[in-house]
Write a structure and sequence with these properties.
This protein is an alpha/beta fold. It folds into 4 domains: 3-185, 2-Layer Sandwich (Beta-Lactamase), CATH 3.30.450; 188-209 and 331-424, 3-Layer(bba) Sandwich (Glucose Oxidase, domain 1); 221-325, Enzyme I, Chain A, domain 2 (Orthogonal Bundle); 445-756, Alpha-Beta Barrel (TIM Barrel), CATH 3.20.20. Helix 6 (221-245) runs antiparallel to helix 7. The radius of gyration is 32 Å and the shape is elongated. The structure holds phosphoenolpyruvate and magnesium ion.
């Protein structure tokens, strides 16, 4: 330990002695009010201040005076102020300490006659923080005009940590004004973005369990400095090691680790940690203190760049805590309680699969959006999920009651009984509706006027397959093979791919599966592949373009598929085909693999069909040539829409600007239907559009007879089909397409039609 640190307060210096005294008070068998009263006396004496007061933030947002030494005792539990009101309110609002030599002339000073504080000139206040949240304010005041040095501010902040623990323990709840919960327990509502539909009622489980620092006060300061130094060294080495080995787990990108490395050497950060130890805290408590500050700033930060940096600091502090406490980073999944709602900053898709599905009721993520990989897995598992919920982790405690509404993106923390009641009712309604859909499982999807419609299911994981029999889907109309690659921590070798495809085919119990070859690139990034920086990734090097430029990859996948489907039917579909030539080249690779396997006496698939996704607009003008060459077509409306309207499907500002239920889109789709019919080419559609009953209704009207969708959509779409007179709706939609209306969307008119004809959409 550098001499300077020891010298800061002397061996039994002010703050350390104070911390020890306070620790003794904490364990005395006295009432919470008596304890608080003793604490303020000790602080005032130790800091040679005439006044020491504790204000606690209540659920109604007011700060209530809970204890004081020096101010009028009658004001305790009487004086309250709003956040932002007075100096105390200002500290609560900014979460920053405030030291003033002449408090009464500060613009925020607010005079409270009942406290008798007008005779005090100097003022030092610090926020009582926990996880970056303000729980209250701790103040000392002096009659004389004085400047509080930096060390005293530090010392008071350290003392405030003990009070934070006391407030968080719930001990003070009983002594406040009646009917006024302290802020820690107040109900909160967060708004995120919907990721996976569903309503979940349950209790918080933190994906990365928070490390609770039990021992705040150091026994031996020198030992704590040494522990801190050792932990910082070890953490730096482990980061270096990770970067050097290139052994980066899913979701842990190189840039993130590089940023960590930079911060791990940040002098300001290290200095703040050492200063906190110098005030008498243990090394882990010092990390928590510095982390509290970073979080408090993070919550008030709107600049995305700064937020990212503060996030990095927060993550780094977490690593240090793990290092100091010897706890590994492995998430504890064992003993997951029933009705768990996982709350995480971010999460790789594989991590979600590690949880026991039967006990999960929901997933709340701070960072991930609807198109993230973990979102895909949440949907596959059928778990309600909400993403982009800023800072929720700081506001919840493990075990807190939580309600998640995956349809609206709302998350209720510690909901009031009426909210809980309303959602329980909603969940019951949903379950009843699901039961009705389940009853439709074996009912053929035939319109009222006798037209059969083929309903298929989209999938991408083995867990998806369990829905095939539940939903009664005729086949897997789209198997997104890239998802298996996205959840893997390294590139799956040929044997692994083959084993996986075999398992998928086995789970499908004889139903056909249309395997789409790797559709990576754009937003679908494989964590173990170097990301190619492109100006317009959606228009960039992706899907079949990568496959044709790196034929080794595509051939490996094709061979795995051909081997897995030995003796059975195999359907392979190529994504993002833009020219006939691309299809021919992809087909040639398949033929080459077939020839290779034949030469080596492998059993080949009994029937091989090759198809193309129609998702690049250029294909719309090559349909005659295409139809004569392919065995089948499937329209990918998700991409086709984004390219036709030139609107990025992942860009929130434009993604929902154009309606798929519009004349140009329906005209384009009708042209595909007409051409496929003319050439007798089997046609399906596997974009999201097919899974929304109202949009599916329009698709049937323009001639689609086969749709593939996520499993949860099959029931509602089938219910729509059973209630539809196809001839009538076809006439209605065709008439809208023929007459130029100038209206961008047909949705409202279609809804009216559905309503008038009692079609559930
Ligand atoms: C599509 O583009 O419509 C499609 C089904 O493929 P993905 O959503 O995987 O791009
Ligand atoms: Mg697509």
């Amino acid at each position: 330990m550098p001499e300077k640190d020891v010298a800061m307060f002397g061996p039994l210096g002010g703050p350390r002695l104070l911390l020890r005294r306070l620790r003794e008070v904490m364990t005395e068998p006295i009432s919470p009010q008596e304890r608080l009263d003793k604490i303020v006396i000790h602080i005032a004496a130790n800091m040679v201040a005439e006044v020491c007061s504790v204000y606690v933030l209540r659920a109604d947002g007011r700060l209530e005076l809970f204890a004081t030494e020096g101010l009028n005792r009658e004001a305790v539990h009487l004086t309250t102020m709003r956040a932002g009101e007075g100096l105390v309110g200002l500290i609560a609002e900014t979460a920053e300490p405030l030291a003033l030599a002449d408090a009464q002339h500060h613009p925020s000073f607010s005079y409270r006659p009942e406290t008798g504080e007008e005779i005090y000139c100097s003022f030092l206040g610090v926020p009582i923080l926990r996880g970056g949240n303000t729980l209250g304010v701790l103040v000392v005041q002096n009659r004389a005009r004085r400047l509080y040095p930096e060390e005293e501010v530090e010392a008071l902040q350290t003392t405030a940590m003990l009070l934070a623990e006391m407030i968080a323990s719930g001990e003070l709840q009983s002594i406040g004004l009646p009917d006024n919960d302290i802020a820690l327990h107040r109900p909160l509502v967060f708004q995120g973005v919907p990721i996976a539909d569903g309503v979940g009622l349950g209790h918080v489980v933190l994906h990365e369990p928070r490390i609770i620092v039990k021992q705040l006060v150091a026994e031996d300061a020198k030992k704590e400095f040494d522990r801190l130094d050792m932990a910082i060294d070890a953490m730096r080495q482990s980061i270096d090691h990770l970067i050097e080995r290139g052994d980066i787990g899913p979701g842990e990108h190189r840039e993130v680790l590089e940023a960590f490395r930079m911060f791990a050497h940040d002098r300001g950060w290290i200095r703040r940690l050492r200063e906190a130890v110098a005030t008498g805290l243990t090394a882990e408590a010092a990390v928590e203190r510095v982390q509290n500050d970073a979080r408090a700033k993070l919550q008030r930060q709107t600049d995305p760049y700064m937020r990212e940096r503060l996030h990095d600091l927060d993550d780094l502090a977490n690593r240090l805590l793990h290092q100091l406490t010897g706890r590994s980073f492995v998430t504890a999944h064992a003993d997951l309680p029933d009705n768990s709602i996982i709350v995480a900053r971010s999460m790789g898709p594989a991590a979600l699969l590690d949880y026991d599905r039967a006990k999960l009721r929901g997933l709340v993520l701070e960072d991930a959006g609807a198109s993230s990989h973990v979102a895909i897995v949440a949907r596959a598992l059928g778990i309600a999920a909400v993403g982009e919920v800023a800072n929720i982790i700081d506001f919840v405690e493990p075990g807190d009651a939580l309600i998640i509404d995956g349809a609206s993106g709302t998350v209720h923390v510690r909901p009031t009984p009426d909210v809980e009641h309303a959602y329980a009712e909603k969940a019951r309604l949903r379950a009843r509706r699901q039961e009705q859909y389940r009853k439709l499982r074996d009912v053929p999807a035939v319109t009222k006027d006798g037209v059969p419609i083929d309903l298929h299911m989209n999938a991408g994981l083995l867990v998806d397959l369990q829905h095939v029999s539940e939903t009664g889907a005729a086949s897997i109309g789209l198997f997104r093979t890239e998802i298996q690659f996205m959840v893997a921590s390294k590139f799956p070798r040929m044997r692994e791919q083959e084993t996986f495809y075999k398992a998928v085919l086995a789970e499908a119990e004889g139903r056909p599966i249309t395997f789409r070859t790797l559709d990576i690139g754009s937003d679908k990034v494989l964590p173990y592949m170097t990301k190619v920086e492109e100006e317009n990734p959606a228009l960039g090097w992706r899907a079949i373009r990568i496959g044709l430029d790196r034929p080794g990859l595509l051939r490996m996948q094709l061979r795995s598929l051909l081997r897995a489907a030995a003796g059975r039917q195999l359907r392979i579909m190529f994504p993002m085909i833009a020219t006939i030539d691309e299809f021919e080249r992809a087909k040639a690779l398949v033929e080459r693999e077939v020839a290779y396997l034949r030469r080596h006496n492998y059993v080949l698939p009994s029937d091989l069909k090759l198809g193309v996704m129609v998702e690049v607009p250029a294909l719309l003008l090559q349909l005659d040539e295409l139809c004569t060459r392919v065995d089948f077509l499937s329209v990918g409306t998700n991409d086709l829409m984004q390219y036709l309207f030139a609107a990025d499907r992942d860009n929130k500002r434009v993604a929902s600007r154009y309606d798929p239920l519009s004349v140009p889109i329906l005209r384009a789709l009708k042209c595909v239907v007409d051409k496929a019919r003319e050439h007798a080419t089997p046609l399906s559609l596997c974009g999201e559009m097919g899974g929304h009953p109202i949009e599916a209704l329009a698709l049937l009207a323009i001639g689609f007879r086969s749709l593939s969708m996520s499993p949860a959509c099959i029931g509602p779409v089938k219910a729509m089909i059973l209630a539809t007179n196809l001839e009538a709706v076809a006439g209605f939609v065709t008439s809208l397409l023929d007459v130029p209306t100038g209206s961008p969307s047909l949705r409202a008119r279609l809804h009216k039609f559905a309503e008038a004809n009692r079609i559930p959409v």
